[in-house]
Write a structure and sequence with these properties.
By secondary structure, this protein is mainly alpha-helical. The protein is built from two helices and no strands. α1 runs antiparallel to α2. The protein is elongated, with a radius of gyration of 16 Å. The mean pLDDT is about 85.
Length: about 70
């Protein structure tokens, strides 16, 4: 998933599959849990970006990657 719209669309697919019976409640819960973890990593990345902007030269190697 490359953006929040794709995450939202996937959540809508999960909901539709749950309503139709194509997914069990347990499976839907696990999938939504994974989506929540993805959103949490984005939140961490945003906060990291804010920190680096406020303190020039700040870098955490674990957070650096080719975007």
């Amino acid at each position: 998933m490359k953006n929040i719209e794709e995450v939202r669309n996937q959540a809508c697919v999960i909901l539709a599959d749950l309503r139709s019976g194509a997914l069990t409640g347990k499976d839907a819960k696990e999938m939504v849990n994974c989506l929540g973890k993805i959103i949490s990593t984005v939140t961490v990345e945003i906060k990291y970006g804010e920190l680096c902007a406020s303190v020039p030269g700040t870098s955490i190697p674990f957070m650096e990657y080719d975007k």
